[in-house]
Design brief:
homodimer, alpha/beta, D-Maltodextrin-Binding Protein, domain 2, Alpha-Beta Plaits, five-stranded mixed beta sheet, 9 helices, elongated, Preph_deHydtase (chains A, B), Chor_mutase/pphenate_deHydtase (chains A, B), lyase (chains A, B)
Chain lengths: 294, 294
């Protein structure tokens, strides 16, 4: 496809919540390039596909291990943005279909489970049918009779002409959010000018042990960051394999204590501050890499 | 079974690595009570089953989420010990069977994969057959012809009479360790006197946010611990559900900086120090609970 538009890799299939998150960030100004796994999204990045969207953390299920295990490795990829998406299941039907006509509801097993109260209340007679993903249910709906419905992201109603949303926010759990990283193919990649960025400035540090004796948490680095008036928002840990068993890579998401204004001038100052801090953190027992500034 | 021996709950089936870890800690002085899940092990604890063994972390795959999600909840259970076990796959056969007779090797998919080099080198003609667990392969071996073998923990050769170990340590990866927690039904439960404890004294703190604004990492608590000369060995994070999305429960495994001697007098002093530190940590924005001392 040569539309002249920038390409953005997403964890597919199109119509999933990752695609919805990507759309929320990049909108319709880009072309979405669907990939089969988080590793494939990262692997697909290049100067012609400069950005990708991958899930980082869910508010109920926690951090996405596959994402952290990729960030654990040294590579050119660099976190350049975040998107927080409310997981909002919709009941989608073929245009014109009314609630009383529905006899069959298709969706991914997890989504069917998360909408159990709604289904018991509004569609007690309907049969539930499991599909491979929520987006696959919407796709299948296109070739199904009018007594069928799908539970999926609202983006499916835009993606597949002929479908419409009958109910939104039908899940039991009201506070299910997923946070995504916008990842760039290199730290030099600039975000397109049309984006509206409204979150606080942050950075992600990866701290790996160098010496065989460093099994402890890098508290010296935490103390140094606090001393520099840096706020630590998240600390995460993954095994540092091929080293002493149980040695760990630590990830620290940091932010400035007084930088709410995101002008390009302020963002540049923040980037410099992060690089300067990281260079001071080069010690003999740990290595600190900046793997994202956004 | 009323043998008069103390019962210890383990993640079953018997013959798995969790059982081997339990055996390494408690030996043959106790009766092992097999449970289907980590939650079931914790739920089975009582004054008659005072201890259980659950996996906490693997050196390659990281922390065991199910274990942390149980430790996240307020309950009577209390961590009272640790066991580090080298995951050491053995090739087990019926007594007297020689390598050249083997035509079929049974095991869990992961173990078969981890022993791929050994199988290609020593048994290139043998067929691999997947089983539900490594212990299930050993159990199946009992009723199989003499041309079969199983890949499993060495404890299976002790557990099932008629089987013997032909090769040990046949895995590709030489540094695969799992760390287990010995968990007690209450903080008052005393470890049996026959145990030999040779690890450093530690404790586990669980830090939960109280106020709606505390989305940050509890760096004030880290700073306080460092000020008290406490070493922080591990920091882990899980979602604190039913609160602000992305608020977290933090777990900190701590140890004293100068207490290598584990005499009961020193252990008592350490326990008191931990309780005293935790009581000083009661702030308005976080709650600190001691959920293990060992």
């Amino acid at each position: 496809m040569t539309t002249g538009k920038m390409e953005v890799a997403v964890l597919g299939p199109l119509g999933t919540y990752t695609h919805e998150a990507a759309f929320k960030f990049f909108g319709s100004e880009v072309v979405y390039n669907e990939q089969d796994s988080i590793a494939d999204v990262c692997g697909a990045l290049s100067s012609s596909v400069p950005f990708g969207i991958i899930p980082q953390e869910n508010s109920i299920f926690g951090t996405v291990v596959e994402t952290y295990d990729i960030l654990r490795n040294t590579g050119p990829n660099f976190v350049r943005g975040e998107i927080v998406l409310k997981i909002n299941h919709c009941l989608i039907v073929k245009k014109g279909v009314k609630l009383h006509q529905i006899r069959k509801v298709m969706s991914h097993e997890q989504a069917l489970g998360q909408c159990m109260d709604f289904l018991a209340d509004k569609l007690p007679e309907a049969v539930s049918v499991k599909t491979k993903s929520t987006a696959a249910a919407a796709r299948e709906l296109l070739d199904s009779p009018s007594d069928c419905a799908a539970i999926c992201s609202g983006i499916c109603a835009e993606l597949f002409p002929g479908l419409e949303i009958l109910f939104t926010s039908i899940q039991n759990e009201r506070s299910n959010f997923t946070r995504f990283h916008a990842i760039a193919y290199s730290r030099q990649a600039s975000l397109p000018h049309f984006l509206t960025i409204d979150y606080e400035m942050k950075a992600l540090l990866r701290i790996t042990p160098c010496s065989k004796s460093s099994l402890e948490c890098p508290t010296d680095i935490i103390a140094f960051l606090l001393d520099q008036n840096i706020i630590i928002g998240r600390i995460d840990r993954r095994p540092f394999v091929d080293s002493v068993p149980f040695s760990s890579v630590y990830f620290m998401e940091i932010r400035a204590s007084d930088l709410h204004d995101r002008s390009s001038h302020r963002f540049q100052a923040w980037s410099q501050e992060v690089e300067s801090i990281a260079s001071k953190l080069g010690t003999t027992s740990r290595q600190t890499h900046v793997i994202g500034i956004w």
